[in-house]
Amino acid sequence: MRENGDEIAKLITDECGKTFEEAKAEMVRAYENVEVACGMPHMGKGEFVEDIAPGIDEIMIRQPVGVCATISPFNFPGMIPFWYLPYALAAGNTYIVKPSEKVPMTMQFIFKLIEQVGFPKGVVNMVNGAKEAVDGILEHPAIRAITFVGSTSVAKYIYATAASYGKRVQAQGGAKNPVIILPDADMEMATKIVADSAFGCAGQRCLAVSLAVTVGESKNEFAELICDAASSRVVGYGMDSGVQMGPVINQASRQRIEQLIGLGAQEGAGVPVDGRGTKIKGYEGGFFVRPTILSEVQPGSEIARTEIFGPVLSLMHVNTIDEAIQLVNSGQYGNQASLFTTSGNAARRFRYEAEAGNIGINIGVAAPMAFFPFSGWKESFFGDMHGQGMDAVEFFTQKKVVVERWPKEWTRKF
Ligand code: NAD
């Protein structure tokens, strides 16, 4: 995959819309998971206790679960299957990938590369399609474990249906990720990082920041800088040099995002930077939405709660860190929460109190590296074991415990 990295990245840019640099960065995360899964002899090793009672040995061994499948979303066509696939295979399972029907090409290409590896036939498989293909996977008696990444409503359906067929299942859902800006933050750094998080991949990252909560005096300076960052972002075709943000996935998504910006305005938010109606010269048919800022968004409003999944950042303001943490924890999702500060004390408190599975301190996209689980709480995750690292090893293996009796008098015979 590394040798063909540029070709894979171009496919991602062309079918998903993100920039070439973003697509290359996505694939680095896929390679990283392959490298970590190569540690399976260590990560997947069992336990052995000799003489747990006189003459009794106890052994825990991990064995494969069987046929496993992954149903993935459109926004990281190359990376997300790799949160699972390398671990599932290294643990001895066979594997089925069902890519999003919106982005089938990247995995087609990667599967041509996988073919060259020389797995026995049937070990690594791909099925294309939408709901019908997913339901086939959910119902098939030979499939023992399913991982899903996508929107919350579908995640709930997958979790409940797969469980009703007695399958092992984990389902990552949607998000509405808040960031708190404390007055002691390095404001220029914070703004740059928050803009990259909110508008990178056109806001179509599950870890994209979409609510910025300023505390006390940080309000005006942050608002001014983030509006500048939003309006100066270069939007266009992701293969063109200098382009910082591509289009959203399709026309339906663009319409939905524009309607939600309208809803925010109806609910009383300001729209100091408005990306509706974007047209890019030379790409007039493209589904572009320029970065958008909604200001004075009210807690409890629909726009403050709904996942937009586009380049739209809502600004909210509170007076204290207590109010800010309360606001963060009042959301239904728990994929990521971030804090910008130079205070170790505030950071440590936030790390402990914030109700989200991935926490960023002075980080805009708190994507865990491959040896850590890709977490998620509340409506952002259904299950217990996550993708990546030891969680993936647990998920793709079943434990067997062997108890053996070896009376002393037998051993003494040798
Ligand atoms: P989606 O839920 O529409 O689709 C995801 C997958 O489910 C696709 O493979 C699709 O074919 C299938 N699917 C769609 N509708 C279905 C149905 N009714 N029954 C059965 N299967 C169905 O999600 P999407 O639009 O591709 O991706 C965006 C969503 O994914 C966002 O909500 C985003 O937050 C979320 N996401 C979450 C994470 C995470 O780690 N939590 C990561 C990436 C994306």
Characterise the protein shown here.
With 414 residues, this protein is α/β, with parallel strands linked by helices. It has 2 domains: 5-173 and 380-404, Aldehyde Dehydrogenase, Chain A, domain 1; 177-361, 3-Layer(aba) Sandwich (Aldehyde Dehydrogenase, Chain A, domain 2), CATH 3.40.309.10. The chain has helices at residues 5-16, 20-37, 40-43, 85-90, 105-117, 131-139, 152-164, 187-199, 218-231, 251-266, 302-305, 321-329, 344-353, 389-395, 408-411, and strands spanning 47-53, 56-64, 67-71, 94-98, 124-126, 143-149, 168-172, 177-181, 209-215, 270-273, 292-295, 312-318, 333-334, 336-340, 358-361, 377-378, 381-382, 397-405. Helix 1 (5-16) packs across helix 2 (20-37), helix 1 (5-16) runs antiparallel to helix 5 and helix 8 crosses helix 9. The longest helix is centred in the first third of the chain and has 18 residues, at 20-37. It binds nicotinamide-adenine-dinucleotide. Nicotinamide-adenine-dinucleotide binds at residues 71-75, 98, 100-101, 130-131, 134, 149-151, 154, 157, 172-175, 206, 307, 309, 335, 374, 376, 380. The site of nicotinamide-adenine-dinucleotide has 27 residues, from helix 6 and helix 7.
